[in-house]
Amino acid sequence: MTAPPHDRHTVRHFRQILLWPLRLIPLPEEKPRSHWQLFDAVRNDSPWHPRMIDEIDDASETSQDTHYKEFSVFLPYVRRFLYGENRGPWIHGPDDPPGDAAVKRFHRHDIATLRIVPRAGHPPVCLAVDGIELIFFDDIDLVLLKVEVSGTDLPLPTVMELLYRFGRIYPTGWNEDGLGVHNVVLAEWLGTSGETLMTSDFEDRLKFLTFTKEHRVPATAAHWSFLLHPIVPAAGDEASPLRFHQIENHHMPMMAFLAIDDPRNLAWDQWLRLGMTDTLHPDEPIPRHDPDVIDFEKRFFFDRYWSNTDQGPNCRFICHGRTLLLVGDAQEGYFINNKRGMLAQFRHQYWIVFLIAHLHRASLLIFSDLLVDAIHDLNVHQSHSIRVFRHRIHICFEAFLRFTHRYWFHEISERTDVQSLFHRIGKNLGNDLLYEEIKEELRDMSQYMDNDLLRRQSKTVTQLTVVTAFSLIGTLTTGALGMNILDETTSSWWLRGGLFLITAIASATILLFTLVLSQRLWDFMETISDPRKSLRSRLRLIFPFRKNR
Q1: pLDDT value at residue 443
Q2: I need a surface site. Which of 183, 270, 416, 478 has the fewest CB within 10 A?
């Protein structure tokens, strides 16, 4: 039997980069250290290496050239948070040292291979693990796990299965055979000597059901938890000072590089399935009436480098927001060049673009969670709850200001391809709309706190006014006593001390009594001073007032 057209395509070079954003539990305020500093302190028993200070300082000439090209693509304010502030003897004084990059990166090299079975009945696929990193950011309770894998000479259907199934954090259900319906059947991390370090446990149905029942959050598959250690789930029982919440969908955002012999022969349905690999099951028919399908080319294709000619270039970007694919011709030397070609740019410039866009989205989702949690815990009938709410909103507002001025921008490069990709990714992720929504929510909460503060101040002014008005009675009385109406200057110290104590107690009693009735007394004073009523009607109010009192 003749194989379908898509089965005859082979991906000569396949590369996938997964990016998993996680919200970190805020550290206690009495410990003024950041998450990356705490991670650096507790990572001694783990395979994580010390943080990477700056890749530009790499000693090899090839690496310096690659990272210099990466550095030169971005605008100065983007370089500042990626690589740190400018250096020079005339820029910073002794009291203003140059700041480091806001991005803090840790890496591990103990894992060399990923052995994976995409679905039942398929042979295992071995992919090289080219990098595993944890990326922290200053001023944001966020960490990103980056996993980069690659392979060669893979059938296109196998690649589509990997794109759809690999990178899922937990199973969304199980079939009659006890296997997850969307995730891979098996994933194993292999060490440098070929030994198995950790295996997935998607088939452990009881584990996931029990964890969800107890904690109201899904569990994390074993092979992903293995990578994150010593960072553990916030809802789990494992003790660790670094804990995380999941803030994204169960399928991680990803980038993919596919070098295919003559990609112009790909059918339109294959382009659709590649572009919608995050949401469209490989066995599911293409939903022809879906808006994403109808406007697919207009919304998700970026064809700056697609000529559809024999001379080339023939590579195109497919940007679906959560996924970014670069598909090109494996016969073009520039496309698969890992030092100066499109592959090198994919791993550096375009990777940074993808990172910044998802940094924006993940940070905004964290702010949204913080605001929802603060509102959920607010009880307007308890003064302590109001004070805690005001403090939490104040901290969130400060963090949002730092995020806006340090990380939020719409232009990152003067290169049109880089800028266009960044704009397209952010638009498909809905970052601008999410930013405006968070900004509006913070404005509403800030206005609520200001109005509540004005109301409390008005109430305090009312009470003080009433107390001052009725204290005139005591002031006049004590003033009359001071006119020697009662002359006790020659009396004994005990008598004078007793009179002083009696006067103090009486004054305090009157003051407290006035405070208790301040609102009623204020209403009474307003009514008595109302010129629109007759004197007789105003005097009648004295008796109901006394009766109510």
Answers
A1: 87
A2: 416
